[in-house]
Amino acid sequence: MKKANHPLLGIHYVLMMVFIYLPILMIVIFSFNNTRLSGNWEGFTLDWYVSLFSNRYVMEALGNSLTVALVSTVVSTVLGTLAALSIRKWSRKGRAGLNGLLYLPVIIPDIIMGLSLLVLFSQMKIDPGKMTIIIAHITFSLSYVYVVVSARLANMGRQLEEAALDLGASRWQTFRHVTLPQISPGIIAGALIAFTLSLDDFMISFFVAGPSSTTLPIYIYGQVKRGVSPEINALCTLLIIVSVILILLAQYVLNRGRGQKKHKMLPM
C-alpha cells in the first residue's frame, strides 16, 4: 500500500514556491501601480506600459537585444548542433574530455566569463559594441544548445541510421531523412533556450557592451540605480513573460519529441 507524503513536505513545497515567486509577483503587481512611489499602491493603470513603447531609449535597447539574440541564437544553434553530431562519433574517453570542455561555459560564473572575454577583446584590439556582445552570447549559448542536442542524440540510438545506410541511402540522405527529424525537437528547444538566455543576459553583456550597444538588461540596471519606477517594473514584467513563454515552449517541444518517439516504438 502506497504511503501518503508527510504534510511537512507539502508545507515545504508551498514555502519554497512563495520564496521563489513572491518577489517576481511583486514586480508584476507594482507595474500596474498608478504612482511612481513603488512602495504605495494607488490604483490600477496601464500608463507605464504605454509609455514604454514611446520611450526612444527603451526601443533602442529592445532593438539591440533582439538583434543580438537572433544572430547569436542562429549561430550557436548551428555550431552546437554540429558539435553534438561530430563528438557523437568519438570514442567514449574522447567524448568525456570534450564534454567537460563544452560544459565549462555553463558551470563557470558569468562574471569570470565576462571578464575573460573583455580581456580577450582588449588584447585583440576589438572595440566593444554589438558585435562583441554577439560573440560573447554565442560563446555561452553554444554550450546549452550542445547539451540539449547531445542528450537527444544519446536517446535516439543508431539503429535507424544503420538501417537506412544498409538500404542504400547516402550519408546525407540518412542525415536529412532520419537523423534530422529525430533530433529536430532538441534543436528547436536548444534554440529557444539560447534565445531566452541571450535576451536576459546582463553580466556578460555588461562587460563587453559599448556605449551605443545597450541591451534591455543593461538599460534596466542603469535605470534602477536612479530608483525603481513602475516603468522599470513594467519592462521587467514583459521580459519575465517572454522568458517564461519561451522556456515553456522549449519544454513542450522536448516533451512532444519524446512522446513521438515512444509512439513510434509501439508495436503495430
UniProtKB/TrEMBL annotation:
Domain ABC transmembrane type-1: 62-250
The protein, known as: ABC transporter permease
Source species of the chain: Paenibacillus lemnae
Gene Ontology CC terms: plasma membrane
Parts of the chain that traverse the membrane: 12-32, 66-88, 100-121, 133-154, 175-196, 202-222, 234-254
Family per similarity comment: Belongs to the binding-protein-dependent transport system permease family. CysTW subfamily.
InterPro entries assigned: Bact_Polyamine_Transport, MetI-like, MetI-like_sf
Any one of the GO BP annotations: transmembrane transport
PANTHER family xrefs: PUTRESCINE TRANSPORT SYSTEM PERMEASE PROTEIN POTI (PTHR43848:SF2)
Domain of life assignment: Bacteria
Record keywords, A-Z: Cell membrane, Membrane, Transmembrane, Transmembrane helix, Transport
Major subcellular location class: membrane
Localization per Swiss-Prot or TrEMBL: Cell membrane
Membrane topology, from the record: Multi-pass membrane protein
